[in-house]
Design a protein that fits this description.
With 341 residues, this protein is α/β, with parallel strands linked by helices. It has two domains: 2-120 and 307-331, 2-Layer Sandwich (Nucleotidyltransferase, domain 5), CATH 3.30.420; 132-300, ATPase, nucleotide binding domain (Nucleotidyltransferase, domain 5, 2-Layer Sandwich). The protein has helices at residues 32-36, 43-64, 84-101, 110-116, 167-177, 184-192, 217-229, 240-266, 281-294, 310-322, and strands spanning 2-7, 12-19, 22-30, 72-80, 105-109, 135-140, 145-152, 155-161, 270-274, 297-300. The radius of gyration is 20 Å and the shape is globular.
Length: 341
């Protein structure tokens, strides 16, 4: 028997089929081209794309998994957080499907699914969340930058989060200032590989504060003011990689030092990282280097599962189903501002 998972929290329409903690399919339809001319996600356009692509994406996921409607034992779907109209498409479809086939519906918190995604391994998929050890988890994406103390499987507490912009948002907004194409984060990562991360010194907000919170709006402002005073740099192609590398270094240093500091304070020798920004190559290399030097175990979500996808929703829904954690989701509404639980 299979679990069908649906994800439409932002600008990816995704469906996946899970069986015994094994991902049988994970289909993602991205909307990058739709939103690129606007430099960011337009909720109304995202919703239209979800409506247009949802049926074909779900059908493809079932076909790739060799699964039909009669094989579905439960439906899992993102209930929040996310863009309200986008969430509504997947959630209402999931409610209708679960009702029509008389199967349980499991509402999943999108950020919690990111939180546990580093524990999934393609080679050890049956052990997903069976042996979660205490760790400090960094969830870092376009909409979220959260530091979490994880005590065990589905036992966790937020210890810090951004006070303004998320790290991924800072990547995208500074990239827009530099005139880079959307999404800006991957473009900065690509160009930074040829740049000097010490070429320019940008603000690192809250770096030396002993709390576990983050702030990235000051870094964005720092870049803006720097370019207002040095506008000619934008017309020098050889300077762009240095700018990207320096911006990236500032963001990653804050994420790295705050996370490692929390690990040391709590005496937890394991760090996990998830979310779209976890695909950043510099972030991965810096965390690998620092954790290796300090004897800290590091688990980073597989690149293909870092960005929004239904597989992580399905894996968590499957676990909740196994544990009997089933609420009356057929009568529940979306939770656009749902904190991780």
């Amino acid at each position: 028997m299979c679990l069908l998972a649906l994800e439409t929290s932002c600008d990816e329409t995704s469906a996946a089929v899970i069986r015994n903690n094994t991902i049988l399919s994970n289909v993602v339809s991205s909307q990058i081209e739709v939103h690129s001319e606007y430099g960011g996600v337009v909720p109304e356009l995202a919703t239209r794309e979800h409506l247009k692509n949802f049926k074909s994406v779900a059908s493809e996921a079932l076909t790739k998994a060799s699964c039909d409607i009669d094989d579905i034992m439960a439906v899992g779907a993102t209930r929040g957080p996310g863009l309200p109209p986008a969430l509504m498409v997947g959630w209402k479809a999931a409610q209708a499907l679960a009702y029509s086939i008389n199967k349980p519906l499991i509402g999943v918190n999108h950020v919690t699914a990111h939180l546990y995604s580093p524990w999934f391994s393609e080679t050890l998929n049956r052990k997903y969340l069976d042996n979660v050890e205490p760790n400090i988890s960094l969830i870092v994406s376009g909409g979220h930058t959260v530091l979490v103390k994880v005590n065990g499987s589905l036992n966790h507490e937020i210890i810090g989060q951004t006070k303004d912009d998320a790290a991924g948002e800072c990547f995208d907004k500074t990239a827009k200032i530099l005139g880079l194409s959307y999404p800006g984060g991957p473009e900065i990562d690509r160009l930074a590989k040829r740049g000097n991360p010490k070429a320019y010194d940008f603000a690192r907000p809250m770096l030396n504060q002993e709390n576990d919170d983050f702030s990235f709006s000051g870094l964005k402002t720092s870049v803006k003011y720097f370019l207002e005073k040095n506008s000619s740099i934008l017309f020098q192609d050889d300077k762009l990689p240095d700018l990207c590398a320096s911006i990236q270094a500032a963001i990653v240093e804050v994420l790295l030092k705050k996370t490692v500091r929390a690990s040391r304070r709590t005496n937890l020798k394991c760090i996990t990282i998830s979310g779209g920004v976890a695909r950043n190559s510099y972030l991965r290399s810096e965390f690998n280097r620092e954790c290796a030097n300090r004897g800290i175990e590091l688990k980073i979500t597989m690149p293909d599962m870092c960005t929004d996808n239904a597989a992580m929703i399905g894996l968590l829904a499957n676990l909740m189903h196994e544990k009997g954690d089933l609420s009356n989701s057929l009568n529940e509404d979306i939770e656009p501002n749902w904190c991780i639980n």
